[in-house]
Amino acid sequence: MRVVRTIEQLREATSFMRRTGQGPVGLVPTMGYLHDGHASLLRRAGEMCGTVVMSIFVNPIQFGPNEDYEAYPRDEQRDLELAEREGADIVFIPTVEVMYPRPIRSKITVSSLTTRLCGASRPGHFDGVTTVVAKLFNLVQPEYAFFGLKDAQQVAVLRQMVDDLNMNVEIIPCPIVRESDGLALSSRNVYLSAEERRQALVLSRSLQEARKAVEEGQAATTDEVRELLTSVISGSPLADIDYAEILTFPELEPLEGNFPLTRAEGEIIMALAVRFGRTRLIDNIIFTPKEVAALV
Ligand code: AMP
């Protein structure tokens, strides 16, 4: 595994792999403090690609002024061990100066898809994400890029960017990796106190219950499902709901409150963002109610 820290080294390393027939090239962008969710992306990339490039960069322009950019957990040594163990060939670890040597004046904005969910709670966040991912695509020129559905809105936004701008890369969405008790893995889970960690199970539990209620016909409309989600989450006194929404996926369009979910065309997403103290956690479930209803 090669560790590269400059733009020149990265371009040289990836073009060497391509020149010597070691493609296709897969890219796994991360902010580090790696866990098994990231490892699952590396493994998927390894199955599809001759060369796997992982980037580790806590991207300042996707954090708001009152967010956790400074506090974001970092552990380069541990990350490199995991990356090597999980088959990364090249790890790109730039500093902020390498990625943004001067104030950036060009940004990519994906409209509409970024107005709801995390786009509404974190103004400017997705511009930061699309801009840094576009830079990484230009640098690495991967055939495939791997992203987790833990950040489902990010997947939808990046697919739109790639389609709109004819970027020559295929986005591969990968399933959410969870702890055995259901909590979605996240680098931010380390912020949680023991009690917050216990109560944080309410995210995955409420999503499971909501899905079951739809499948069994106890909750038929978006209003009913939203009420069920918020009432289950409110059962945890430390939980402070940022949003609990039901939208079409990947268009992220709202469904009318009294719209029967089983009549939705295609997939829907139930998406949550919940604060525990200063820690904001997200989770979601994507499924097709029609198919599920047809099975029962
Ligand atoms: P991050 O380092 O949090 O920016 O995440 C880097 C990539 O890993 C993103 O594509 C995330 O969606 C993905 N990821 C983070 N957590 C998980 C998880 N629990 N399961 C699957 N993918 C994840």
UniProtKB/TrEMBL annotation:
Ranges annotated as spanning the membrane: none
Keyword Nucleotide-binding: yes
InterPro entries registered for this protein in UniProt: Cyt_trans-like, Pantoate_ligase, Pantoate_ligase_C, Rossmann-like_a/b/a_fold
Pathway: Cofactor biosynthesis; (R)-pantothenate biosynthesis; (R)-pantothenate from (R)-pantoate and beta-alanine: step 1/1
SUPFAM superfamilies: Nucleotidylyl transferase (SSF52374)
PANTHER family attached to this UniProt entry: CYTIDYLATE KINASE/PANTOATE-BETA-ALANINE LIGASE (PTHR21299), PANTOATE--BETA-ALANINE LIGASE (PTHR21299:SF1)
Name recorded for this polypeptide: Pantothenate synthetase
Originating species: Paenibacillus durus
Phylogenetic lineage: Bacteria, Bacillati, Bacillota, Bacilli, Bacillales
Gene field: panC
